[in-house]
Each structure stands twice: as structure tokens, then as C-alpha cells.
Design goal:
- The protein is built from 2 helices and 9 strands, in the order ββαβββαββββ.
- The protein is mainly beta and 101 residues long.
- A hairpin with a 3-residue loop joins strand 1 and strand 2.
- The radius of gyration is 12 Å and the shape is globular.
Length: 101
């Protein structure tokens, strides 16, 4: 299984995600905290901007409007990278080391 490189801007965090691992889970394993609450695509606490790359969702229709999707907004709690991805999450911060999800 190939890994995808994930970068979080503006902080510059970088880590790898498995193709079947959400961006949120990969970030937490790498010791990076993203805003979160429900972790199932409904609360929108993790809403952020996809800067580059592409994703798919592990659920049919996450809590985003068609306009938000067209603006590049994503929900990393249910988003799976389809290659290398850069997302903009101004409130991301380090947890002090790798963690288990």
C-alpha cells in the first residue's frame, strides 16, 4: 500500500497517510491536532480548505453544501487522500509527538 504525503499549512506540519486512513486520523497519529468533535462528517468543527491534491470521502455526502465543496472546503475527519494533499488549517498544533488514534 502506498502512502500519501499530507502537509498542513500555515504551520508546515507534514506526515504520511495510508490510502484508507482519514486525514484527521493520520494527523493525530503524527502528533498533529486538528479541530474536531464528532469525527463523522456532521458537526463541521474540522472544516478546512483543500489547497492542493484531491480527496474522496468515506461517507456518501458529508456535512458540506455543494457550494462549499466547489470552494474547496473539506472535512478531514471523513476525507481520504487520493495522492499528496495540502490543507490549510490555521488552528492546527502539535501534540508533542506521535500518538495512537
Amino acid at each position: 500500500m502506498s502512502h500519501h504525503r499530507i502537509r498542513i499549512e500555515p504551520a508546515g506540519f507534514a506526515f504520511e497517510a495510508q490510502p484508507d486512513q482519514t486525514l484527521m486520523d493520520a494527523a493525530l497519529v503524527a502528533g498533529v491536532s486538528l479541530p474536531r468533535s464528532c469525527r463523522n462528517g456532521t458537526c463541521r468543527a474540522c472544516l478546512c480548505q483543500l489547497v492542493s491534491g484531491s480527496i474522496r470521502y468515506r461517507i456518501e455526502w458529508p456535512g458540506l453544501s455543494a457550494d462549499e465543496k466547489s470552494e474547496g472546503l473539506i472535512l478531514p475527519c471523513v476525507a481520504l487522500a487520493q495522492g499528496d494533499v495540502v490543507i490549510k488549517v490555521p488552528s492546527a498544533h502539535g501534540l508533542g509527538g506521535p500518538r495512537d488514534v
